Amino acid sequence: MNVEQAVIDVMKQCGIDTVLTLPCDRMKNFLPLIPKNFREIPLSREEGGVGIAAGLYMSGKKPAMVIQSTGIGNSLTALSSLHKTYDLPLPILASWRGVYKESIQAQVHFGKFLPGVLDNMGIPYLVAEKPADLPAVRKAIDQSYKENTPYVILFSPKIWEGSTAKEAESAPQPQERSFDLNCSTRMPRATETRFDMIKAIVPYLRGKIVVSNIGVPSKELYAALDQPTNFYMTGSWGEVSAIGNGLAIGQQKEVVVLDGDGSILFNPNTLGMIAQESPENLTVIAFDNSAHGSTGNQPTYSSRMDLELLARVYGIGNTTKAATAKELLSALEKAGKGPRFIHVPVLAKNADVPNIPLSNVDIKKRFMEAI
Ligand SMILES: Cc1ncc(C[n+]2csc(CCOP(=O)(O)OP(=O)(O)O)c2C)c(N)n1
């Protein structure tokens, strides 16, 4: 039996259309089948895939993740504060390492404790160790979508033993390449606050899909322009541009992300994922106050480097700086193929604005109805 193909068939029966992947050696005959059957989004870090998957789902897609079980470790905060509090589905098909015929000592500790971790976090899981378990895999994927929860399917390496799947072919070799890193790295001094900037761009944001960084930036957006097409983050710090990326991949309307320097430096791989998928309808505004604003303006190291250049290095070609609200509005209004990255210096100062009086599930529901 070709077990790898049988798993693909199950995913298709469940209506999965997009698969986020980060490889495990035990799945090397399974992974080549994914781009042949689904849209594949190869990841550089599983946690970023959690954000992209949330955006894909909210835009009407049906994503799943195929990763190594270790990747669940670096995704736990995002799974818990994003998927578990906004009630979002995500089937995670994980190659379960550390338990069956494991030769790598480093895999054993987390692999052994993983079921207990999932149990304690209220994340349902299933162990698939033989082809006869595949009907249960199908049920688990369906349940993830029916009950709006992540559902982990732990594939024991045992399940692939004796499979008739073809051996994976060798990968194409890297080609010569060059990049245009030409951008201004002179950062003008900040003269306006993030709230000044958000208020000034309200005419542009009105009616658009807007995703805002955790904490004060979301509260400032709520105070300046509350609308159902705003997705306010209340947790999963560092995922805002990943969610925006997923939303922009999953549907056609323009998506504007309000990100921060701390968040980008926390998860810079998200910039690479944006460049890789290159959704033309995505604009990331990076409010750079050289501080962790929401937690009391503790300095970040963004003052020692250039975020716009970082975006270029990651492969985002359409970048600019906008030092005033007027410049930001005109940069936004200037047509240009995305993904776009606008680097905006702002004062390290938070507006005194109230909390958002909506639950996470309410934010998600009205957002999904509106977009
Ligand atoms: C994993 C994790 N670490 C730390 C925090 C606490 N935290 C919340 S917001 C924030 C800083 C936000 O800074 P930035 O992303 O630059 O946005 P700003 O508020 O400055 O606009 C931090 C450290 C968190 N929520 N999650």
From TrEMBL:
Pfam families membership: TPP_enzyme_C, TPP_enzyme_N
Record-linked Gene3D superfamilies: 3.40.50.970
Catalytic function, reaction form: 3-sulfopyruvate + H(+) = sulfoacetaldehyde + CO2
Ranges where the Thiamine pyrophosphate enzyme N-terminal TPP-binding domain occurs: 1-105
Domain Thiamine pyrophosphate enzyme TPP-binding as annotated: residue spans: 228-344
GO BP field: coenzyme M biosynthetic process
The protein's Enzyme Commission number: 4.1.1.79
Single GO molecular function: thiamine pyrophosphate binding
InterPro entries per record: Sulfopyruvate_deCO2ase_alpha, Sulfopyruvate_deCO2ase_bsu, THDP-binding, Thiamin_PyroP_enz_TPP-bd_dom, TPP_dependent_decarboxylase, TPP_enzyme_TPP-bd
Keywords: Coenzyme M biosynthesis, Decarboxylase, Lyase, Thiamine pyrophosphate
Keyword Transferase carried by entry: no
PANTHER family xrefs: SULFOPYRUVATE DECARBOXYLASE (PTHR42818:SF1), SULFOPYRUVATE DECARBOXYLASE SUBUNIT ALPHA (PTHR42818)
This protein's name: sulfopyruvate decarboxylase
Organism name: Methanocella arvoryzae (strain DSM 22066 / NBRC 105507 / MRE50)
